[in-house]
Design goal:
Order of helices and strands: HEHEHEHEEEEHHEHEHEHHEEEHHEH
Mean pLDDT: 90
Largest sheet: 7 strands, mixed
CATH superfamily of the largest domain: Periplasmic binding protein-like II
Oligomer: single chain
CATH class of the largest domain: Alpha Beta
Number of helices: 13
Number of domains: 2
CATH architecture of the largest domain: 3-Layer(aba) Sandwich
Radius of gyration: 25 Å
CATH topology of the largest domain: D-Maltodextrin-Binding Protein, domain 2
Low-confidence stretches: 5-24
Structural class: alpha/beta
Helix content: 40-55%
Number of strands: 14
Length: 340
């Protein structure tokens, strides 16, 4: 009996040792690869994100992972980063929502970047038209909206009056106005407003009789102020960036908040993502959760804030796949436009 007891104890020890060794191996990573998209000069990104290596390594080690090396790379294109995530050569990728949905067969979103929010975020257009300036809030936001703004022209004021009276605009109302639009790759200046028109009226921007493409939001705002166009498409709330120019450069005597009105608001456009590879040999549920926690903690430090400011990120919040359903619809629209 004693003999079998000793054997049993030895077996338990071996099992415990093997289990501990397995757990340790699971949390031992020789190299963790982080990829960034080339939204700025690659060398500038590499230099700015160098401190992330030690920050990420330390945060993951605090959660029980042994990280040999954190390697940071900048893809040759947005698509190259998506392909690296799909192939498993990148463990982590910081990519825009549009890139994520194109590669979500191989990439899993775990975080959405946050930026300062606004004190107005309603889907109801007239809620933006109280005559007061839109201001930054003390809350972080994971998304922003595109606004359809009517200017001081006679037609612009006519459309604004209907909206502010609680009336629904018709396609005929909108098509009788002149529009300033941005290039077809602009989320706020084209893609999301095109989705808005399609969903509400069964028409797209290409169906508008009077539409002119502006090369910048500044030139679009100048056209709106001068009455060259009745409506412009822009991000929320671009008027904050042109409050002074409205009078000093564009020659208006009343404020931009009095002379412009929101007549349409698109669904939320979600911010950039932090994604992990579904194909990486390093990746598992424990590591995903640790990476998620690590980036949130890093963004809460001064050193971390400086690193992520390269992409104008201010923090991170947990994300889920369905957050980017609207972006999937946007990408389908882009594909349709490119096919025409």
């Amino acid at each position: 009996m004693r003999k079998w007891t000793v054997v049993f104890i030895l077996l338990l020890c071996v099992t415990a040792f093997t289990g501990c060794k397995s757990d340790k191996e699971d949390k031992s990573i020789e190299k963790l690869s982080v990829y960034f998209v080339p939204s700025r000069e690659p060398e500038e990104i590499i230099t700015a994100t160098e401190p992330l290596k030690d920050l990420l390594k330390q945060q993951l080690e605090d959660q029980g992972f042994e990280i040999g090396q954190v390697e940071i790379s900048v893809g040759t294109s947005y698509e190259a980063v998506g392909e690296a995530l799909s192939a498993g050569t990148a463990d982590i990728g910081l990519i825009p929502g549009g890139t994520y949905v194109l590669y979500d067969d191989g990439a899993e979103v775990i975080l959405t970047a946050t930026r300062s929010g606004l004190n107005k975020d309603s889907e109801v257009p007239k809620d933006w038209n109280d005559g007061t300036a839109t201001e930054a809030s003390d809350q972080q936001a994971v998304s922003y909206r595109s606004l359809i703004i009517a200017g001081p022209s006679e037609k612009g004021q006519e459309l604004a009056a209907k909206v502010n009276a609680g009336e629904e605009l018709t396609w005929e109302d909108l098509n009788s106005a002149s529009w300033s639009i941005m290039s077809s790759s602009s989320p706020a200046g084209y893609i999301y407003p095109a989705l808005w028109l399609q969903e509400k009226y069964g028409h797209s921007i290409t169906d508008l009789t009077l539409a002119v493409q502006s090369d910048s939001y500044g030139s679009a705002m100048a056209r709106l102020a001068s009455g060259q166009v009745d409506i412009m498409l822009t991000y929320a709330d671009a008027r904050r960036d042109y409050t002074e120019k409205w009078g000093s450069e564009y020659g208006r005597t009343a404020s931009i908040w009095e002379e412009t009105n929101v007549i349409g608001v698109t669904p939320a456009i979600y911010n950039d993502t932090v994604c992990v590879s579904k194909s990486s040999e390093n990746m598992n549920d424990d590591l995903k959760e640790a990476i998620q926690n690590a980036f949130i903690q890093i963004a809460g430090t001064d050193a971390g804030k400086e690193v992520i400011s390269i992409y104008s990120h201010e923090g991170y919040q947990p994300a889920k796949e369905s957050d980017y359903d609207q972006e999937r619809a946007a990408q389908k629209l882009i594909q349709t436009l490119n096919a025409q």
